[in-house]
Every structure is written in structure tokens, then in C-alpha cells.
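Notebook entry, cofactor series.
This is the third protein in the set we're modelling with a bound small molecule. For this one the ligand is S-adenosylmethionine. I'm keeping the input format identical across the series so the outputs can be compared line by line later. Sequence and SMILES below, as received.
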Amino acid sequence: MNTPSAYFEQLYSDSADPWSLDGQWYVQRKYDHTLAALPRRHYRTAFEPGCSVGLLTAALAERCGTLLATDRVAAAAELTAARTRHLPNVRVRQLAIPDEWPEGRFELIVLSELLYYFDDRTLREVLRRTAEALEPGGALVTVHWNHPAPEHHRTGRTLAPVLSAIPGLTLQTDCRDPDFTLHVLERPYGAGPGGRPRG
Ligand SMILES: C[S@@+](CC[C@H](N)C(=O)[O-])C[C@H]1O[C@@H](n2cnc3c(N)ncnc32)[C@H](O)[C@@H]1O
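Returned structure with ligand:
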């Protein structure tokens, strides 16, 4: 069973930053790795579901033309909107993936500390929709905590075999930190002449 909505709603009604993301050294270090792992300097369009309090959102915004950040919890979406109010390239919406999925395709999708809340069937559906929503040449970045938590179906390490073999995507980076596992996958350009330079 997926972690229920009520679980997340309760966390945000108890605290404005349920995972104490703001100021944690682990979190800062993981964000720095995530940003450093993005193959391109700039992405025209990006999607970040599960944005929580919007710390990664604000950092990603510097590398993106437009960034859509979403969270299933209204309070989280509001916190992200408040944090990024000065960033006109960021849009924030309340959406519960995979059932609520935004229109369009993206050059970058970031799934950070989100996938262990899904059961196996939903995880497959999230990854299928993610691969479909990436533009050819686009990148998916995933990053997850390695240590067991009671509310998590998997850890970063046990997600790794699934994430390194997402149908339709090619694994580019497999980074194993003691605390987190980070992958970058790219959607290959279709068969045909030419490719696109990075940068
Ligand atoms: C651990 S926080 C992730 C924080 C952030 N991505 C980061 O790396 O700092 C997980 C967030 O995902 C949100 N979430 C959980 N299930 C979701 C879903 N199905 N769709 C969208 N957001 C979801 C939760 O409300 C919570 O804010």
C-alpha cells in the first residue's frame, strides 16, 4: 500500500518542516551532490514532484528556465510558493502523483526522497510516467536516503536495482554515498541523425 495522504497531512499539521530539511548538513550535502550531478548547466523545463518546503526547488530554479514544483500536501505547496515567491520561473501546484500528473514534457525531472513512499505497482507507474514525460535528451535525477525508516517501503540501496533499469532510459550516473544513493538517467534521442551538445 502507498503511504497514505493522511500521514503527510498530519506531519505538516505538526511541523512546518517535518523532516527538518532546513539547516541539516546531510540535506545540504545531498542537495549539493544532486545539483552537481545534473549533466547540463541549464534546463529549459523541469519538474520536481514532492517538493516539501521548497529548499531544493529554490536551488534548482537557478539552473532552469521554468520549474514546476508540486507536492500532494497543500501546506507544503504553500511553503514552497512562499520560499520561491521572488523566483518568477517557478510554478507551484498541489498534485499527488502519479494519478495527478502535469501536462507536457520536461528536460529535467527530479525525484528526491519520494519513491520509497510507493508500493511496487505505483512505483512502476510513477517511473513509466516519468520516462514518458522526459524529452528526448532529457535527464531524470533520483536521490534517496539509504537507511531504513518505518514509513518507507524501500531504502536508497534497495531502490537502486529498479532505478538503474527504468525501461526507455539510459543510466548515466550511479553514485553511492554512505547515506544516499543518487542516479542520473537520460532519455536517449530517437534513432536519427545528429545529437545535441551538452551545456
Ligand atoms: C521527504 S519529503 C521530500 C523532500 C524534498 N523532495 C527533498 O528532497 O528535500 C517527501 C515529500 O513528498 C510529498 N509526497 C509524498 N507522496 C507524494 C505524491 N504521491 N505526490 C506528490 N508529493 C508527494 C510529501 O508530502 C513530502 O512533502
